[in-house]
Design goal:
Layout lengths: L1 H18 L1 H4 L7 H24 L8 H14 L18 H4 L1 H23 L3 H22 L3
Length: 151
């Protein structure tokens, strides 16, 4: 489970970055595009680790903290899309984000809630519930990516 712990540490660090994102978005030298790209890679790493644990019938309790970190990350995620961060740094963010920001925020909130429930199921060592909720979380990610992320 070393990879799970490393992913958790990475996500906790990413979550810390996200917590100050709104303030940092105005700071000189802060790059919201790069921050969101790196944070999403950390989320992906944790998600893949969780999916592999379920696939190989591994304990899910170690994923409680990474799942909660994903929830915290998603709570801050929309703040990483300030006006003007739609171009550059190879962003895949679609203009639809800024045209329908309320929906984008709702999608992020849905992902946060799904990850929070995933964390509770992991903590309770509910393997079957965790596996089902992991699919729910993946679905929330897919919904947002279809609407707001270019291929």
């Amino acid at each position: 489970m070393r990879s799970g712990r490393l992913a958790a540490i990475g996500l906790l660090l990413a979550g810390s970055v996200g917590l100050g994102a709104a303030a940092l978005a105005q700071a000189p030298g802060f790059d919201p595009i790069r921050t969101r790209q790196v944070g999403q890679l950390l989320v992906l790493g944790s998600f893949v680790g969780m999916r592999e644990a379920v696939k190989h019938h591994q304990p899910v309790k170690p994923f409680a903290e990474p799942a909660m970190a994903i929830s915290h990350w998603m709570d801050q995620y929309a703040s990483l899309f300030p006006p003007g961060s739609d171009k550059g740094d190879n962003t895949k963010a679609r203009p639809a984000i800024w045209k329908n920001f309320a929906r984008f925020q709702k999608d992020a909130a849905d992902a946060s809630a799904a990850a929070k429930k995933l964390a509770m199921l992991a903590k309770a060592e509910d393997t079957a519930g965790f596996a089902a909720q992991l699919k729910v979380l993946g679905g929330t990610c897919g919904t947002c990516h279809k609407a707001f992320r270019a291929k």
